Amino acid sequence: MQPTDIRLFIPSKDFAFSQAFYQALGFSRDPVNDQLCIFSQGECTFFLQNFCNQALAENLMMQLIVKDINAALKQIESMGELVDKYEPIQQETWGKVIYLSGPAGELWHITQLTG
């Protein structure tokens, strides 16, 4: 087996709101059907599903690696009421990170790696 990609299925409590959230975060939406969308930006792709298991959503974490953490923070700040909770840039030993809560409770680690 030689994998070429891996894609996550992210749950949503409110499918329309979650779509708006990810579009405002800078991802392009491509509907698959009325229960599933593909979101992409560059080579990064994930599925958003019109389904939510709350325990799964609240324990789901993803790391999105970016080139410019300051640009990511500006993007998040521009999203207004679509963003419920985030922590500003924090310095870690491995780089800088913004912790962003998604609409269903999923946690994004938006990261600029050191070096």
Strand order of the largest sheet: 1-4-3-2
CATH class: Alpha Beta
Computed Rg: 14 Å
Main sheet properties: 4 strands, mixed
Strand-pairing-aware structural class:
alpha/beta
Could you name the CATH homologous superfamily?
A: 2,3-Dihydroxybiphenyl 1,2-Dioxygenase, domain 1
Strand content: 35-45%
- Give me the oligomer status: single chain
Number of strands: 8
Give the ordered list of helices and strands. Answer: EHEEEHEHEEE
Helix content: 10-25%
Our measurement of the CA-to-CA distance between the termini, rounded to an integer number of angstroms, reads 31 Å
Q: Figure out the total of helices.
A: 3
Anisotropy-based shape: globular
- Number of spatially distinct domains: 1
Chain-averaged pLDDT? 96
Low-confidence stretches: none
